[in-house]
Amino acid sequence: MAPTKKQETEKTGLAKGVNKGTKTIPIISKPRPSRRKGAQSKRTNFVRSIVKEVAGLAPYERRVIELLRNGKDKRARKYSKRKLGTYGRAKAKVDELQRVIAESRRAGH
């Protein structure tokens, strides 16, 4: 009965025998660097939040907020899709701006 992949015994380094073959180091699988691409670090998040605080909203973001306040959610999503390129990004941006509106309401009252 030959050893299976999971329970391989260590090779002896000899050409003959039960555990014949070159001694090898098992390959440790770790995620590729490309899997980490786009993951935000704490520092990046912090810097972006400071920039957002100082610079305020972009003109298109102000328009989207205006559309949301007037109850035109679908139009707001369509407009942000036009500006950002993909529907997924547009939905995320609209959600973010709705949170901004909610926060401003909380701060106002």
Automatic annotation (TrEMBL):
Top-level taxonomy: Eukaryota, Fungi, Dikarya, Ascomycota, Pezizomycotina
| Protein name per Swiss-Prot or TrEMBL | 60S ribosomal protein L36
Q: Which PROSITE patterns does the UniProt entry name for this protein? A: RIBOSOMAL_L36E (PS01190)
Q: Name one Pfam family in it.
A: Ribosomal_L36e
- UniProt-listed GO biological process terms: translation
Highest taxon above the source species: Eukaryota
Tell me the organism: Podospora anserina (strain S / ATCC MYA-4624 / DSM 980 / FGSC 10383) (Pleurage anserina)
Q: Which family does it belong to?
A: Belongs to the eukaryotic ribosomal protein eL36 family.
Q: Keywords for this entry?
A: Ribonucleoprotein, Ribosomal protein
Tell me a Gene Ontology molecular-function term this record carries: structural constituent of ribosome
Quote the biased-composition stretches of kind Basic and acidic residues, using this chain's numbering: 1-13
Outline the segment boundaries, as ranges, of region: Disordered: 1-43
Q: Which Gene3D superfamilies does this UniProt record tie to the protein?
A: 60S ribosomal protein L36 (1.10.10.1760)
InterPro entries according to UniProt? Ribosomal_eL36, Ribosomal_eL36_sf
CC per GO annotation = ribonucleoprotein complex; ribosome
